[in-house]
């Protein structure tokens, strides 16, 4: 039975572990060993073991594994700024942000 985790209610550790397990499932559907995936992604087998088992790795290693598995399009929608809901919001986004002038203490 496939367990679906609600990321909105999960801890960061649970989310990481779930993603690691999902990547393992994709690897297994391709019939690759951990060593084969590691070789193709240019990472160590230990990195794959840790990623699949605990969901822990560097962001760069995760991206390499995702690319080798052909899942890079899955990353496309992550952290995308939603479209503006109004013209005022669009204008606000387009306006360059400026720092407030630095206030200097009065001279004695």
Topology readout:
Blueprint lengths: L11 H19 L3 H8 L3 H10 L4 H10 L3 H5 L10 H8 L14
Helix pairs in contact: 1-3, 2-3, 2-4
Task: Provide a quick synopsis of the model.
56% of the residues lie in helices and 0% in strands. With 108 residues, it is mostly helical. It has a single domain (12-94), classed as lambda repressor-like DNA-binding domains (434 Repressor (Amino-terminal Domain), Orthogonal Bundle).
Task: Explain this structure.
- The chain has 108 residues and is mainly alpha-helical.
- It has one domain (12-94): lambda repressor-like DNA-binding domains (434 Repressor (Amino-terminal Domain)).
- α1 crosses α3 (45-54), α2 crosses α3 (45-54) and α2 packs across α4.
- The longest helix has 19 residues, at 12-30.
- The chain contains 6 helices and no strands.
- The model has no long low-confidence stretch (mean pLDDT 88).
- Helix content is 56%, strand content 0%.
CATH architecture: Orthogonal Bundle
**What fraction of residues sit in β-strands?**
under 5%
- Give the strand tally: 0
- End-to-end gap: 76 Å
Provide the descriptors you would attach to this structure in a database record.
56% helix, 434 Repressor (Amino-terminal Domain), 108 residues, 6 helices, mainly alpha
């Amino acid at each position: 039975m496939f367990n679906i985790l609600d990321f909105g209610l999960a801890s960061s550790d649970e989310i990481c572990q779930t993603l690691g397990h999902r990547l393992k499932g994709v690897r297994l559907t391709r019939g690759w060993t951990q060593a084969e995936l590691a070789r193709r992604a240019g990472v160590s087998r230990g990195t794959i073991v840790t990623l699949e088992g605990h969901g822990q790795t560097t962001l760069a290693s995760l991206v390499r594994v995702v690319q080798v598995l052909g899942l890079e399009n899955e990353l496309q929608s992550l952290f995308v700024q939603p479209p503006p809901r109004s013209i005022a919001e669009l204008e606000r986004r387009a306006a360059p942000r400026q720092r407030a002038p630095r206030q200097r203490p009065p001279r004695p």
